[in-house]
Design goal:
The complex is a heterodimer of chains A (112) and B (112). With 112 residues, chain A is mostly beta strands. Chain A contains no helices and 11 strands. Chain B starts with a strand and ends with a strand.
Amino acid sequence: QKEVEQNSGPLSVPEGAIASLNCTYSDRGSQSFFWYRQYSGKSPELIMSIYSNGDKEDGRFTAQLNKASQYVSLLIRDSQPSDSATYLCAVNWVWDDYKLSFGAGTTVTVRA
Amino acid sequence: DVKVTQSSRYLVKRTGEKVFLECVQDMDHENMFWYRQDPGLGLRLIYFSYDVKMKEKGDIPEGYSVSREKKERFSLILESASTNQTSMYLCASRGRPQEKLFFGSGTQLSVL
């Protein structure tokens, strides 16, 4: 079974610091990768998608993809209390294009 | 504004009951998904559908079935509810593979 693994949390960071979240996946040929944020009691919402090796920046968020190492990460710069949430990594499997699998999530708490 | 609507926010059922969870999207999306979310396990895919009357098993289909008679509606059926099916159920849709998912607000199902 194809797997998506995220670093175990919870992750506690002080306000203004960088939060670093990691995700590995088992299918070398996967093409599409997503980071979703989920506040407690709410549904997941997309914050970043990345398809090519390298970095992709959007505001305070940076996604990094390394397909050779089967690794995708999310950096949150200048962390704010409003960033406190669970972050879910999701991967589209290359041979099963319709299927999007999620990791278990990493819970981030930003301390004021 | 895009919308995925799940019929119930909270549902309490008894063991052995047949349970229907309904999901409707107004975006003319081809793909629809049912996930369940349990603490520490993330989102696990139960079933998905890539077209009307078409369905595919996800990672944990046992004990569930689905129905998609119309493009906008995707139903999850628990033929005989059991206590281990107590969970948060999330419906999602998207237009094409590789695009982002839009989630419904979720149904918290308790089976007593």
